[in-house]
UniProtKB/TrEMBL annotation:
This is PIG-L deacetylase family protein. PANTHER family: LMBE FAMILY PROTEIN (PTHR12993:SF28), N-ACETYLGLUCOSAMINYL-PHOSPHATIDYLINOSITOL DE-N-ACETYLASE-RELATED (PTHR12993). It comes from the Bacteria. It is an enzyme of class 3 (hydrolase). Keywords: Hydrolase, Zinc. The keyword Hydrolase applies. One of its GO terms (molecular function) is hydrolase activity. InterPro entries: GlcNAc_PI_deacetylase-related, LmbE-like_dom_sf. The keyword Zinc applies. Its EC number is 3.5.1.-.
Length: 247
């Protein structure tokens, strides 16, 4: 692992990580190699996917209801490729996510249930250099998830029904990792986990099945660029994040 910030939690201090993402496959495009490294080190990782991805895919013969079921199954299969078995869905409509109080409460609820040391999420900011990570659902989920980390999940008086009706005590996540944003201060060398990342993405057949070898070309292009930016030797591959101390 290559660090360009000095206050990243050591993985030995991390017991649980919650990844909050907008769509099935988001976590795999952005961070599957890093996730595989975490689970290899014995860290429990939980996925919270806000939508079912029902607006995705390329087959007009598949109904949107069937696509939602298919994409849930694909995400569960992809998660297994990188050692994740706990995958949760909120069922928000794909393409219409907004950073509402309801979404903040739903994410804060899961933070209090899982009690993670680290939360992985998409960026709430638009990335003009690479537009694809800046899908409006990604930005809405990033905004709501960051608000759920601070102040919602840690404040016992925010959404008090989570405590009074559901018995969920306040919880402070110590660190946030942001994927896909315009600011990067941390890289993870995931060369040894690359094949598992590819397997996870191949599991999303409704989204990647048409790509063939183009998937490898795309991944190696941007992962190699990340590694170069991190100062890693030639041939290495890296995923990029902005790490924020939220303790």
């Amino acid at each position: 692992m290559v660090e360009t910030v000095t206050d990243v939690l050591d993985d030995s201090e991390v017991r649980r990580i919650l990844a909050v993402m907008a769509h099935p496959d988001d976590v795999d495009f952005g961070a599957a190699g890093t996730v595989a490294g975490w689970t290899d080190r014995g860290i429990e990782v939980v996925y919270l996917i806000v939508t079912d991805g029902d607006a995705g895919g390329f087959d007009d013969a598949v109904t949107r209801a069937d696509m939602a079921v298919l994409r849930r199954d694909e995400q569960r299969a992809a998660a297994k490729c990188v050692g994740v078995t706990d995958v949760r869905f909120l069922g928000y409509p794909d393409g219409r996510v907004e950073a509402t109080l309801d979404l903040r409460r739903d994410i804060a609820r899961v933070i209090r249930q899982v009690r993670p040391d680290r939360v992985l999420m998409p960026s709430p900011e638009r990335n003009y250099e690479r537009i694809y990570p800046s899908h409006p659902d990604h930005r809405a989920v990033g905004s709501a998830a960051l608000d759920a980390v601070y102040p919602d999940a840690r404040n016992p008086y925010a959404f008090p029904e989570l405590l009074s009706a559901e018995g969920l005590d306040a919880w402070t996540a110590r660190e946030v990792w942001i994927s896909g944003g315009p600011a990067v201060n941390h890289h993870v060398d995931m060369t040894d986990q690359y094949d598992r990342k590819v397997n996870a993405l191949r599991a999303h057949a409704s989204q990647t099945g048409h790509m063939g070898d183009g998937l490898h070309d795309m991944l190696r292009g941007w992962l190699s660029a990340n590694a170069t930016a991190a100062g890693l030797p030639g041939g290495r591959l890296a995923e990029a994040f902005q790490v924020v101390d939220t303790a």
